């Protein structure tokens, strides 16, 4: 269960203070009011949880302990990674078994507690792996990169890859329906997850840990938990189909003069690379300038270009695949679709090229606060949203693209409008980088961004869900009928509303 939160409201003051401290969400967004039907955590509750967990080290107790004693330990659980929201949770529980999760949720449901943070890092076991079928069964707390390393030793690959793979947990990936960098090749989690185990709010354990690819016996209820953001249950185990690990991975990086040319390059990549194409990523010039500004990396290409693309192939024959990729790059350059490009000569160079794509979110975070929109748009107009958004911000006089200028935050809070993402999936990351979070910027962006997407029948959340930020805007992507059905499901499984309250729907 996540910390209590609520829908996002505009504030007259930035969330981040001048000193860099993230203000409490309840202060920055005064319209967020705690639901009085939820109980406060007491010393009696803490005693029960300690008995369930069997170890004082399995929880962070800010209820019966002095706040100063646990401040550093509990802070990461109260603040989001974008440093935009900060809660006031005082208790973190770290269960090690599904039974413990069940007892905790049943107790919270009975007591109407909705402020407990569950951390599944101790539920980190690989339960089984079938090297013939490629089916992996693991606890939800397994780190994504750990799971992939385990599979690598057995000739397989986890069908999801994220820039945050070194810290994110597989259960969280499922709960937010993360798409990742190689969805183009391996598909999304709705297709690769074969079964799950989850715990409902009343403590009921849902044992749907099937390892079968085909099972057409009634409703496919596991799909309800994928992308549900923990609103109807806590995922505790997962069975997932893992492909054979490619023996050869090749990467190319190239510059283009327009988004139109990027589309043409993608068309040629699908045609010429077909079955070995595993990723086609788009980055605009602004995103690459910021990565260089923050990291000091040496650019892969000599010139500067309005757009860049990264292409990855995965196959079984390294020489053959490399030749195909090289031939593709030569062809699109001869047709003047691509202006310049490079093919990685080895794994180290391939990883270096990937840093220019994977490093964008982190680099933006170093520059300041970021308004993030992870959206799906029909490919033809995918980048137009970035251009239209930038034009609105410029017209309002809020943009100053000099990254070194920190003195103009009050007058020009926006430092960059960036577009990058998974071109192979029509998934754009529109990021508006700010020196401080500012009410004027929010008014420019919302609901403009969502209305723009709605007109093109896109999605306001391609991956990672709704949370606090997008709850109020779900109607731009889903009909009233669909929202009503979602609420009915939420009410059915969580009638007391204790799971991730105020968020999602």
TrEMBL record:
Q: Residues in domain FAD-binding PCMH-type?
A: 63-245
Matching entries from Gene3D superfamilies are given as: 3.30.465.10, 3.30.70.2190, 3.30.70.2740, Uridine Diphospho-n-acetylenolpyruvylglucosamine Reductase, domain 2 (3.30.43.10), Vanillyl-alcohol Oxidase, Chain A, domain 4 (1.10.45.10)
- Write out the catalysed reaction: (R)-lactate + 2 Fe(III)-[cytochrome c] = 2 Fe(II)-[cytochrome c] + pyruvate + 2 H(+)
Q: Name one GO cellular component term.
A: mitochondrion
Name the UniProt key words of this record, in alphabetical order: FAD, Flavoprotein, Oxidoreductase
Q: Which PANTHER family match?
A: D-2-HYDROXYGLUTARATE DEHYDROGENASE, MITOCHONDRIAL
State the family it belongs to: Belongs to the FAD-binding oxidoreductase/transferase type 4 family.
Q: Identify this protein by name.
A: FAD-binding PCMH-type domain-containing protein
């Amino acid at each position: 269960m996540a910390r209590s939160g609520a829908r996002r409201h505009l504030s007259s003051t930035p969330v981040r203070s001048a000193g860099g401290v993230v203000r409490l969400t309840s202060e920055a967004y005064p319209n967020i009011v705690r639901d009085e039907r939820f109980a406060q955590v007491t010393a009696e509750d803490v005693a029960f949880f300690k008995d369930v967990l069997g170890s004082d080290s399995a929880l962070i107790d800010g209820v019966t302990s002095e706040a100063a004693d646990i401040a550093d330990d509990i802070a990461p659980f109260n603040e989001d990674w974008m440093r935009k929201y900060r809660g006031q949770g005082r208790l973190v529980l770290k269960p090690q078994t599904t039974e413990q999760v069940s007892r905790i949720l049943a107790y919270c449901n009975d007591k109407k507690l909705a402020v407990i943070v569950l951390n599944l890092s101790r539920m980190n076991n690989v339960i089984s792996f079938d090297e013939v079928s490629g089916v992996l069964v693991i606890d939800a707390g397994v780190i994504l990169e750990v799971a992939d390393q385990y599979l690598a030793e057995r000739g397989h690959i986890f069908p999801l890859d994220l820039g945050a793979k070194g810290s994110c947990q597989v259960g969280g990936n499922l709960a937010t329906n993360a798409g990742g960098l190689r969805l183009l090749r391996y598909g999304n989690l709705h297709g690769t997850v074969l079964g799950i185990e989850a715990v409902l709010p009343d403590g009921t354990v849902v044992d749907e840990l099937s390892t079968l690819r085909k099972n057409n016996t009634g409703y496919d209820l596991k799909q309800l938990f994928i992308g549900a953001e923990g609103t109807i249950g806590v995922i505790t185990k997962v069975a997932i189909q893992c492909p054979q690990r490619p023996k050869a991975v090749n990467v190319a990086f190239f510059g283009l003069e327009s988004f139109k040319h990027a589309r043409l390059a993608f068309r040629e990549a699908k045609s010429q690379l077909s079955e070995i194409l595993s990723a086609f990523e788009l980055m605009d010039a602004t995103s690459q300038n910021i990565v260089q500004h923050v990291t000091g990396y040496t650019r892969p290409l000599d010139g500067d270009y309005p757009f860049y693309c990264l292409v990855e192939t995965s196959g079984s024959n390294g020489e053959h695949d490399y030749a195909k990729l090289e031939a593709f790059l030569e062809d699109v350059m001869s047709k003047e679709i691509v202006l310049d490009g490079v093919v990685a000569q080895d794994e180290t160079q391939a990883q270096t090229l990937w840093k220019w794509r994977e490093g964008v979110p982190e680099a933006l975070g170093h520059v300041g606060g970021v308004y993030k929109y992870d959206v799906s748009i029909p490919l033809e107009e995918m980048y137009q949203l970035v251009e239209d958004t930038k034009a609105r911000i410029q017209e309002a006089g809020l943009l100053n693209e000099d990254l070194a200028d920190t003195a103009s935050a009050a007058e020009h809070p926006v430092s960059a409008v960036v577009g990058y993402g998974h071109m192979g999936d029509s998934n754009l990351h529109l990021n508006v980088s700010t020196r401080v979070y500012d009410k004027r910027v929010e008014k420019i962006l919302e609901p403009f961004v969502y209305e723009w997407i709605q007109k093109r029948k896109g999605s306001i959340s391609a991956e990672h869900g709704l949370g606090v930020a997008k709850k109020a805007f779900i109607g731009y992507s889903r009909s009233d009928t669909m929202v009503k059905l979602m609420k009915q499901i939420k009410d059915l499984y969580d009638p007391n509303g204790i799971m991730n309250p105020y968020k999602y729907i």
